[in-house]
């Protein structure tokens, strides 16, 4: 495994173009019923900042991985952000969770979505665990974000 630089481990950023208007993309990245179609197997949360929730991922073996989730900001159709990965019972904050922000910008007939995930260094993980976690999130977003694009394309084709 190649060594990641400090800059690489600090912030994960992905930018993609989605052929749909920002209000549609906002719903797909924020509403639990849509989020379940491209990301976790179950999304249980309210769109109210600060309210606790969960994302449930099922493994190939049928095990469940439950991640804590809390909306930070919901500003349709521009920004949706949340904290996740904190321990059950903890209030999500810098140092115990990761912050994900979806920023949406109208671009031609579609939307440019910029996804940023921060907070890896603030978690206080040892270097090897920090790199492992960062790589897992790179792999995860590289898998799930294209599913988001495909899901929106299917919605647009059906309408």
Automatic annotation (TrEMBL):
InterPro entries in alphabetical order: ASHA1/2-like_C, START-like_dom_sf
Which parts of the sequence belong to the Activator of Hsp90 ATPase homologue 1/2-like C-terminal domain?
19-152
Domain of life of the source:
Bacteria
Q: State the Pfam families in the record.
A: AHSA1 (PF08327)
Query: Could you say which protein family the record assigns here?
Result: Belongs to the AHA1 family.
Protein name per the record: Activator of Hsp90 ATPase homologue 1/2-like C-terminal domain-containing protein
Q: Which organism is it from?
A: Gordonia sputi NBRC 100414
């Amino acid at each position: 495994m190649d060594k990641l630089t400090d800059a690489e481990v600090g912030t994960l950023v992905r930018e993609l173009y989605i052929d749909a208007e920002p209000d549609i993309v906002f719903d797909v990245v924020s509403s639990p019923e849509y989020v379940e179609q491209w990301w976790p197997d179950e999304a249980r949360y309210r769109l109210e900042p600060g309210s606790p929730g969960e994302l449930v991922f099922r493994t190939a073996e049928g095990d469940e991985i439950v991640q804590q989730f809390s909306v930070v900001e919901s500003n349709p159709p521009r920004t949706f952000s949340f904290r996740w990965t904190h321990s059950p019972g903890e209030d999500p904050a810098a140092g115990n969770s990761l912050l994900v922000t979806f920023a949406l910008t109208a671009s031609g007939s579609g939307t440019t979505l910029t996804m940023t995930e921060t907070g890896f260094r603030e978690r206080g993980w040892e270097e090897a665990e920090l790199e492992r976690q960062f790589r897992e999130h790179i792999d995860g977003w590289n898998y799930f974000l294209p599913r988001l694009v495909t899901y929106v394309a299917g919605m647009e084709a059906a309408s």
